[in-house]
Structures are given as C-alpha cells and as structure tokens.
Amino acid sequence: MNVLRINGLTKRYGRITAVDELSLEVEQGMAYGILGPNGSGKTTTLGMVLDITHPDSGSFEWFEGQYGRDARRHVGALLETPNFYPYLNAIDNLVIVAHIKQVKAPRFEELLKLVNLYERRTSKFRTYSLGMKQRLAIASAMVGDPEVLIFDEPTNGLDPQGIAEIRNTLQRIAETGKTIIMASHILDEVEKVCSHVAIIKNGHLLASGTVGAIISDDFLVEIAAEDMPGLQAAFKTDNRIKKAELQDNGILLLHLENETLAAAINEWAFSKGHTLSHLRIVKKSLEAEFLEITANQ
C-alpha cells in the first residue's frame, strides 16, 4: 500500500520556486530518505504533506485515502529542534504530549526503551545532552503509535556520538516495520538507515529508487602508473572496461561490469606494459553518486 503519494507538488515564494512539480510514492514499511543540499526543498515538501504549508499546485494523499481527514493522526513528525519543559523529566514531558494528542493509553516506558532513554526517564530535561533531547523528541513523535514517522534533519547539530545514537535509534524503529520518511543532507546517515531514496535539487526530483539502484552497479577500481596517459589509453580500448576516467587527483578510475580480483587487474596492466604504483578497490557510496547526479544538473 502507498502510505504517501505526491503528485506534481509545487510551492513558490515570490520569484523562488522551492518545490517544482515534485512527484513521489512511499510504500508501507519503507525507510525512505529524501536527499538534497540545503535549500533544495526538503523541508518545504514535508511542510506541505503535513498541512503546515499550503502548496500552490499539485496534490498529495495519505494512506490511499482510507483515513480521510483523519490521516494526519496516523503520522508522527519531528521537524524542528525539540522543545520540552526543562524542569520536567522524560515521563512528565511525554504525558503532556499524550494529552495534546489525546492518546488515552500511551506506552511511555516502551518508547523510552526504544530510544535508549529508559535509564534517564526520571532525569529533568535540562540535564540531557543534545542527542538525548533529540531522542526524546523521537519518542514524542511516536506517542499514539503512528504508522508513519517523519524526521527532518534528525542528526543536525549533533556530535559524532549523538549522530550514531540517532542512527541506531532510527534503525531500531525501522526494524519494527514502521514507515520512516527522513529528509537529510547527511548522505552517509541516510545510506545506513534508508532502503529507498529520492534525490532532489532546487525542488526538482533528480533520481529515486532503492539505495542499491541509485548507487551505480559498476565495480570500481583505482589504478595509477608512471605513464598515466598511456595507462588510460590502454584500458580505454579494453573491452572488459566500461569506462576509464582520469580523476583530478591523477588516479585512473576503472568501471567494470563484474567484480574482479586485484591480482587480475595488476596482471592486465603489466600485460599492457605498465607497472602499477597504485591499486585500490572502491565501493561507490551514496555520497559519491549524489554528488555526481547533482553536479550534472
């Protein structure tokens, strides 16, 4: 089932088009990452589907319309810096959240265990680190057991330990079967958490699909030798090589269809009259693919 369908969504601020005819589909159970540099329209998109911002054109639909106007009750969201009462502890703050949401039987202890705050449940909010505050905000978004959770830049401003804690928390939530929609420019974190990704820039959708599909399937190898022009020319004419690109750092990047042993590549080069001074198998990351896609637009 599609939990969210976006069709041609557009939002303008004067002469600036923040989101331009964006169309996306998020299926139930997905951990869906919306990637883009700052100012790409991620937050504006989330604001529109949460009825915070009104679109100029286009439409969106939650849960294929099955909840009608009550669809928003089935969505939990964290869009801004968490704001709780500093003199209250985690439980008391969540009690207030449950009252606002009109949730009659919230499972506070279960939520705090999920976000790894159970041991600090009676500590005042003001004693929490920034990462702990963010994890309490995630717990508050889950009050009422929503089917979909939306997070906008959930690791923004955190130190490496805090980022790792949030990432682990989101992974645990995804394992429960919840649908997660996460907007971020921190590509490594999205790659580790999300199963699907959409890349946007200037409000335009550039690419979407599974993380595995967005990342190139090519097997990448870096090589170098004393005669780099000759090395590139030799491998460009080799039918086993899809592409041989000379990088700015002077390294030749080979694109191969199939995984190949380093020893075989070294043997190929030697048979062409080149002794390699550098040989490294490369795993192409989502970050590299993201930068490549956005650079070409």
TrEMBL record:
Pfam families, sorted: ABC_tran (PF00005)
Record keywords: ATP-binding, Nucleotide-binding, Transport
Residues of the ABC transporter domain: 4-227
InterPro entries with a match to the protein in the record: AAA+_ATPase (IPR003593), ABC_transporter-like_ATP-bd (IPR003439), ABC_transporter-like_CS (IPR017871), P-loop_NTPase (IPR027417)
Coiled coil regions in record: none
Family the entry assigns: Belongs to the ABC transporter superfamily.
Protein name per Swiss-Prot or TrEMBL: ABC transporter ATP-binding protein
